[in-house]
Amino acid sequence: MEKRFVPNMAAAFGLAAAFPARAAQIAGDPEGAGVIVHAVNWLQGTLLGTAATVAAVIAVAAVGFMMLTGRINWRHGAVVVLGCFILFGAATIVGGIRAAATGG
User: Fold this and answer.
1) DSSP structure class, residue 65
2) How far apart are CA 5 and CA 36, in angstroms?
3) How far is the C-alpha of 31 from the C-alpha of 44, rounded, in Å?
4) Of 44, 52, 55, 68, most Cβ neighbours within 10 A?
C-alpha cells in the first residue's frame, strides 16, 4: 500500500495565519489587492477567533477524556494538543524566530 503525504493542518493554518500580513508589508499591496488582503485577514480572524478557541477547548477536553479512558493512544492525543498550541501560538513562534534571525 502506498503512503501519501498528509500535511499537518495545524501547521498549515498557523503558517497561513502568520505570514499574509507580513508579506503585504514587505512587498506593498499591488493595485486591487485590498479585497484579497481583507479576505485573508477575515480568514485569520475566523481561524483564531472565539469560535475556533471554543472548538479547540472542546477538542482538547474530548481528546484528554479519551486518553484517560484508554480510547485513544497517548501519542495521537498529544499531537492534537500540540497542534492546538502551534495553531494559537503561531504569531508568537514566528516573532521569536524572526527576532532570533535578526539578532534583536
Assistant:
1) H
2) 29
3) 22
4) 44
